[in-house]
Amino acid sequence: MANEINSSNFIRNIVIDDLESGKHKEIITRFPPEPNGYLHIGHAKSICLNFQLADEFNGKTNLRFDDTNPIKEDTEYVESIKEDVKWLGFDWDELLFASNYFDIMYEKAQLLIKKGKAYVCDLTPEEMKDYRGSLTAPGKESPYRNRSVEENLDLLERMKNGEFEDGKKVLRAKIDMSSPNINMRDPIIYRISHSVHHNTGDKWCIYPMYDFAHPIEDAIEGITHSICTLEFEDHRPLYDWVVKECEMESTPRQIEFARLNLTNTVMSKRKLKLLVDEGIVDGWDDPRMPTIAGLRRKGYTPASIRNFCSAIGVAKASSVVDEQMLEYFIREDLNPTATRAMAVLNPLKLVITNYPEGQSEILEIENNPNDESAGTRQVEFSRELYIEREDFMEVPVKKYFRLFPGNEVRLKGAYFVKCTDVIKDEEGNVTEIHCTYDPETKSGSGFTGRKVKGTIHWVNAKTAIPAEFRLYEPLILDDVEENEGKHFLEQINPNSLTTLKGFIEPSVKGAKAQEKYQLFRHGYFNVDSKDSTTDNLVFNRIVSLKSSFKLNK
Ligand code: ATP
Ligand code: MG
């Protein structure tokens, strides 16, 4: 089980107190996703928190699908969520579905009616809104509020039997229409929806509301600490009311924490689904998505995500985390392990005119300059190479130390070359550059005659393998969301994906899906799990090599 860092936080302190005081002998947490989309990095925060907390104190964590809204839910999402939780490195104790408790929930609704704590209401949604009042004005009692227990039981039964259309009736808790907390103003606890449920099929046409269902689910499972995000803080009195009035045997405690927000990222499943449905991305696992599936396909590792979640911590105050912090953790994780290689993403041919035609030689290049034990690999060098187009300028700008006519640079792991000629097509585009090399300057030969300021990478034109490289930028241009009057779809970055056809050294031949490489000067790359084949390798850039981001430790 994965638990790198158990950084302290206020929820952990509550758990420690509860164990020390004897309130609980064992703690049980749960991760309760609604299967209406794929999990995202925000969910990862909640997953790490729930699983690591229970794990640290030898407790248990359930994976429970909160599937009370059939219209939006699907088994595709159930399967993806299971896969993502496992991939992150966690094992649940029990796999459960809220829908398995629908019978109990129905009985509890009947119990509330019998206690005079719930009633069937016929107000239309508009009327109900009107009756609810506002933050400053108290609500008004529904004219249906004082129906008899018998009538309420009968109407609920007939709701269940499908006698009424969607929206015609609801079951409401009878609490307090003048409560300063709007959630307590006779909230709806059951509604009619004639729809097929992914788990219960057409058995039910009434479904419990989240605020009624969730505390019951927690109590049935004996959850001790029910951890949720801050927007449920005002719902806590209702949570406690349901547990008490439904006479649940166990009393779970709801604790709220701040959800994770990331710069340049939308995180709600509703918005992520829109990106998928509008075809703006190529599915939930598009590497530009902040979903676990997207991050995995981009090349993130489970450890990098867990370490990120530990570092951001758990607090009560909302904040926005710089997405570069996530990038920091994948660099940390991959730097010691990623296989090194050279690739040219935007190729320009370089011909070494004084290197004998038909000849080639094998050079030894170190795999990891920071780690001798990573060894060396053999790279073939010959007369015709590819270099990066941006490593040549016909008219160099100031402080340009790479190739330009008359200038000399080192080819990584090979020789000094000096640019002697520029070949162009009819339109004046540079198609090839000619250089001479100095055989005395071979890397590792101890040559000290003169120095050059630039080292550039290359691949051998004859043996390099063609490959596709996908470079990413943030999908969302800034984090001003709808509240600034702009819909987030208007802030899509048109350059979020750049696809380049280049070459990579033959040592990576046969690279398998999800293998990670550090490509010299370009960054960390992952072999794409969907589109890469032996004949057409596709590399996704996970992250560039450097950033100005500093982690405050
Ligand atoms: P979204 O608003 O993104 O659709 P949700 O809260 O509706 O998310 P659920 O499937 O209900 O999604 O969430 C499952 C669990 O994950 C809940 O306990 C929820 O509080 C938590 N969670 C969701 N988003 C975040 C986030 N950004 N940061 C931390 N926890 C989150
Ligand atoms: Mg939700």
Fold topology:
Elements lengths: L9 H11 L7 E4 L9 H16 L3 E6 L9 H13 L7 E3 L4 H13 L3 E4 L3 H8 L16 H12 L9 E4 L14 E5 L13 E3 L1 H12 L3 E5 L6 H10 L7 E5 L2 E3 L6 H9 L14 H7 L3 H11 L6 E3 L1 H12 L4 E3 L1 E2 L2 E6 L7 E7 L9 E7 L1 E5 L19 E4 L4 E9 L5 E9 L16 E2 L1 E3 L4 E8 L24 E8 L11 E4 L3 E5 L9 E7 L10
Parallel strand pairs: 1-2, 2-3, 8-9, 10-11, 12-25, 14-20, 18-21, 23-27
Antiparallel strand pairs: 4-5, 5-6, 6-7, 13-24, 14-17, 15-16, 17-22, 18-19, 19-20, 23-24, 25-26, 26-27
Helix pairs in contact: 2-11, 7-8, 11-12
The structure holds adenosine-5'-triphosphate (ATP) and magnesium ion (MG).
The site of adenosine-5'-triphosphate (ATP) has 15 residues, from helix 2 and strand 8.
